[in-house]
Amino acid sequence: MSTPFDRQFWEDRYASAHAVWSGEPNPNLVAEVAGLEPGDALDAGAGEGADAVWLAGKGWRVKAVDFSATALERAATRGSDVDWERADLTEWSPEPASYDLVSAQYLHLPGLAEVLPRLGAGVRPGGILLVVGHERSDAHPFPELCYPAKEMAGWLDDGWEILISEPRPGRESTRRDEVLKARRRA
Ligand SMILES: C[S@@+](CC[C@H](N)C(=O)[O-])C[C@H]1O[C@@H](n2cnc3c(N)ncnc32)[C@H](O)[C@@H]1O
């Protein structure tokens, strides 16, 4: 039996459809990455790979991690030059200070408060941590896993400059995204 948003939940979700997501990159990723110089990027919880493929198309060298084999197989068929890796982000850690961008889009999971600073340790000085999630709402199946951006900002230490921590319009018309954008101090 699966618990909220665990690996079996996601495998079942991906197995239930040919494509779960639109195939388009997330609007807040596009908006916030637009002004950045391409470098090394990590997409944490990459799903079917739309964001990773979009980043690669913009000149980023991308590593994309997800724990769903079905999602990653689907992502890899998109034929882009992305380094796909199957791993559980509650256990996996990036190489320290090795990415110019670490992006987590809709990575709703228990224990994110512990996972996020660990992913952030993968960001180089001057690099960006971008986290986008659903705004908390009773319409969400697991509202307790929807973290306000200001709460997520509080999980980071003072080695970070918080650039954005607020709800913004997102990919769904009915609910906003919580957007956290932070720069690692040099
Ligand atoms: C809501 S989907 C978002 C996918 C993609 N980022 C997007 O925006 O289209 C969340 C993704 O996170 C992945 N995920 C959730 N918990 C994870 C974990 N502990 N380790 C690795 N991936 C995880 C799921 O498999 C799923 O693909």
Automatic annotation (TrEMBL):
Organism taxonomic ancestry: Bacteria, Bacillati, Actinomycetota, Actinomycetes, Pseudonocardiales
Residue ranges annotated for the Methyltransferase domain, each copy included: 42-127
Single GO molecular function: methyltransferase activity
GO BP field: methylation
Protein name: Class I SAM-dependent methyltransferase
PANTHER family assigned: PUTATIVE (AFU_ORTHOLOGUE AFUA_2G14390)-RELATED (PTHR43861:SF3), TRANS-ACONITATE 2-METHYLTRANSFERASE-RELATED (PTHR43861)
InterPro entries, sorted: Methyltransf_25, SAM-dependent_MTases_sf
Residues making up the signal peptide according to the UniProt record: none
Organism listed in the record: Amycolatopsis acidicola
Keywords: Methyltransferase, Transferase
Source organism superkingdom: Bacteria
Biased composition (Basic and acidic residues): 168-186
Residue ranges, annotated region (Disordered): 167-186
